[in-house]
Design a protein that fits this description.
The chain has helices at 9-25, 32-45, 56-66, 83-91, 110-116, 136-145, 198-207, 229-239, 242-259, 289-298, 328-336, 348-360, and strands spanning 49-53, 74-77, 95-98, 121-127, 149-153, 161-162, 165-166, 173-177, 191-195, 266-267, 275-276, 282-285, 321-322, 337-340. By secondary structure, the protein is α/β, with parallel strands linked by helices. Bound molecules: pyridoxal-5'-phosphate. Pyridoxal-5'-phosphate is lined by residues 55-57, 81-82, 84-85, 127, 153, 155-156, 177, 179, 189, 191.
């Protein structure tokens, strides 16, 4: 599913030099490397500011708290996501409310979001799931109409865009993870948020460092979510390769979309003309998933499930509020989804093997 050690040798060399640079600098946390990476990341995304932090979970908490969202406030999001999305809301002290998904994309259904809006709603948290760009236009309009913030969980969306505009620039703030398996991964944990609001960026900068604005002054009760110089230095080098990596993911996904042909295997909706997906994962649906996964394993093809248990089926989340019509699409997706290998390290030969393995499957 991932081959993190297949990085190009020139990159590994650059990474060694970056580590050396940090070792010689004598400065390990929140220094020059972090601010250089923040500038580079903001530019890459097309936002005014980026604020580095310790991981993607913290980025979500910092985004919400930076917007003043907390106890008593509801945040509408999806049950089909990494657990961190929900956990970030809970950690900010706010209450997640779960909307159902669109079965063709597995992302938030704007109709279901509408049914979840209450007088206590403060924000819609859209996850650009699998690296596909979500329904930003519909949700921006809905957010505006009901005076809600739109927040984007971009942990899987490095390189996803619509009409040339990157994920993370449609809402008030985008939250990013640089966990090693993400499209842009560090050599450890790292995260960031991006925003066009200088006020929000300044607030997040204070919050990530105990709520400190100047030394020993703590107008806010923050957390420790600082970013290391070493991770920032490595991310600066890895960022140089991101465009090529995302392009390779797209090539792999294009082949899957044109060559996968099996009546038992359903693909997700292909990107529209204006959409550029970043294919963090390539997900198909199959009613006989157990058998398909067993068959693939037999053919030497790994697969994973993202995600087998929707958020509302997790023990601490069973009583969360949700769409009054239920979360049926999320449940069906959780029962049938299967992720095929889709990463920049795959060779054309491997992609061909995966395609024939899927096409040979008989339910
Ligand atoms: C990975 C991920 C996160 C959390 O990021 P971490 O850096 O692991 O904390 C949040 N949301 C989504 C959708 C993710 O895929």
């Amino acid at each position: 599913m991932n081959e993190l050690s297949r990085d190009p040798p020139e990159l590994v060399e650059r990474e060694r030099m970056a580590c050396d640079r940090v070792l010689k600098s004598g400065w390990w946390i929140l220094g020059r490397e972090v601010s250089e990476f923040e500038t580079a990341w903001a530019k890459w995304v097309g936002a005014n500011e980026a604020v580095g932090c310790a991981n993607g979970l913290d980025a979500i908490e910092l985004a919400l708290r930076g917007l003043g969202i907390g106890p008593g406030d509801e945040v509408i999001t999806t049950p089909m996501t990494a657990f961190a999305t929900t956990l970030g809301i809970v950690r900010a002290g706010a209450t997640p409310v779960l909307a159902d998904i669109d079965p063709d994309t597995a992302m938030l259904s704007p109709d279901s979001v509408k049914r979840c809006i209450s007088p206590r709603s403060r924000a819609i948290l859209l996850v650009h799931l699998y690296g596909c760009i979500g329904p930003v236009e519909e949700l921006s309009a809905l957010a505006q109409k009901h005076d809600l913030y739109l927040i984007e969980d971009c942990a899987q969306a490095h390189g996803a865009s619509i009409a040339g505009r990157s994920a993370g620039t449609f809402g008030e703030v985008g939250a990013w993870s640089f966990y090693p398996t993400k499209n842009l991964g560090a050599i450890g944990d790292a995260g960031a948020l991006t925003t066009c609001s200088g006020k929000l960026a300044a607030g997040a900068r204070a919050l990530r460092n105990y709520g400190q604005t100047e030394r020993y002054h703590h107008p806010l009760l923050g957390l420790n979510s600082r970013l290391d110089e070493l991770q920032a230095a490595l991310l600066r080098e890895r960022l140089i390769y991101l465009r090529i990596w995302v392009e390779r993911r797209r090539q792999v996904a294009d082949r899957y979309m044109s060559e996968l042909q099996n009546p038992h295997v359903r693909l997700m909706r292909a990107p529209l003309e204006k959409e550029r997906h970043a294919f963090h994962l390539f997900v198909v649906r199959c009613k006989a998933r157990v058998e398909l996964q067993r068959h693939l394993k037999h053919c030497g093809v790994e697969s994973l499930i993202h995600y087998p248990i929707p958020v509302h089926r997790q023990d601490p989340c069973q009583s969360l509020s949700r769409d009054r019509l239920g979360l049926n699409q999320a449940e069906a997706h959780a029962n049938e989804c299967l992720s095929l290998p889709c990463h920049p390290g795959l060779t054309d030969g491997e992609v061909g093997q995966i395609i024939s393995a899927v096409n040979q499957f008989k339910a």
